Amino acid sequence: MRIIQNGYLYQVTFMAKVFPVNCYLVEEDDGLTLIDAALDFGKKGIIQVAEKIGKPITKIVLTHAHEDHVGALDSLKEILPDVQVYISVRDSRLMSGDRSLDAHEEQTPIKGGVPKNLKTRADVLLKEGDFVGSLQAFETPGHTPGSMSFLDTRTNAVIAGDAFQTRGGIAVSGDMKLFFPFPAFATWSKKAALASAKKLVNLKPSLLAVGHGELVENPFHAMTTAIKNMEQKINKGAYRCHQDQDLH
After folding, report:
1. What is the average pLDDT across 154-183?
2. Domain boundaries, given as residue ranges, for the chain
3. Which pLDDT band, with edges at 50, 70 and 90, does 149 fall under?
4. Contact 153, 134 (CB under 8 A)
5. Is 32 helix (H, G, I), strand (E, B) or coil?
6. What angle, 0 to 180 degrees and rounded to 10, lies between the N-to-C axes of helices 190-201 and 220-247?
7. pLDDT of 246 over the 70 cut
8. How far apart (Å, rounded) are the C-alpha atoms in residues 130 and 174?
9. Which residues touch 17 (CB under 8 Å, ≥6 apart)?
10. Of 238, 135, 142, 237, nearest in space to 198 by CA
11. For labelling, which of 61, 79, 120, 203 has a CA lying 20 to 30 Å from the CA of 220?
12. Rounded to an integer, what distance in angstroms lies between the CA atom of residue 59 and that of residue 33?
């Protein structure tokens, strides 16, 4: 386990050299907000970091409901039964293994490790603009239909879940990176992910914190480059699709 502090934000990384999975503790006056719950063996490490900081975990906020973001949730709730859990209205369905799509959504399968045996359910369902302490919620669908990102309004740091990755090179969710392709494999809609990435870069964040990879300070240029790369790939794919249709 590795811990990196940047202002009010503590990045907690499991398996940093092999398959990095991040969760975050955000310091508030009255305690700590845990963003994501990492892997199933992460409970002990998360609690240790909170004890080291010297404040209790008072809230658990989920960017989305994939298994590597909710893995330790049940075991954390066993020892923190009064802590409220927050997730988007849309991704609350994934917590119970519901992969169904709404009529207005892109009709491609929801991918990735959707939990099958998660006992915990959310206490608070979030929508665009809601606040959890100092964190403002932004709907950033793409990786999952209900993915959310969170802006720390004190510092303008963005905790983006899997809307971006920085492991293997910075990329928008769904843009395959050879040295770390896993977030792309688990992405539901590339088009939605691209729109969400543009939404986040328009916030002009001071810091980008993601589910897989290193923190990026002053990330505007890197995010813009990643968006352009994704845009080119999507446009190229659309062009090839039109060519195929013309041939027929």
Report:
1. 97
2. 2-247
3. very high
4. yes
5. strand
6. 150
7. no
8. 26
9. none
10. 142
11. 61
12. 5
Domain 2-247 fold = Metallo-beta-lactamase; Chain A (3.60.15)
Q: At 106, give phi and psi (nearest 5°).
A: -55, 130
Q: Which two tokens stand for residue 206?
A: 């001071």
Give me Rg for the CA atoms of the chain.
18
Buried b (16+ CB within 10 A) or exposed e, 173-187: bbbebeebebbbebb
The per-residue pLDDT for 73 is 98
Phi, then psi, of 129 in degrees rounded to 5: 90, -10
Q: What distance in Å separates the CA atoms of residue 172 and residue 163, rounded to the nearest whole number?
A: 6
Mean pLDDT, the chain, whole residue set: 95
Distance of CA 207 to the CA centre of its chain: 14
Q: Does pLDDT of 45 surpass 80? A: yes
**Helices then strands (H, E): number in the chain?**
7, 15
DSSP labels, 75-120: HHHHH-TT-EEEEETTTHHHHTT-----TTS--S---S---SS---
* Confidence at 241, pLDDT banded by 50, 70, 90: very low
The answer to whether 157 and 33 are in contact (CB under 8 A) is no
**How far is the C-alpha of 100 from the C-alpha of 97, rounded, in Å?**
9
For residues 193 and 172, the answer to whether their CB atoms sit within 8 Å is yes
User: Residue 162 has what pLDDT?
Assistant: 98
Among candidate residues 122, 112, 204, 106, the one with its CA nearest the CA of residue 162 = 112
**Structure confidence at residue 240 (pLDDT):** 54
Residue position matching structure tokens 């988007």:
88
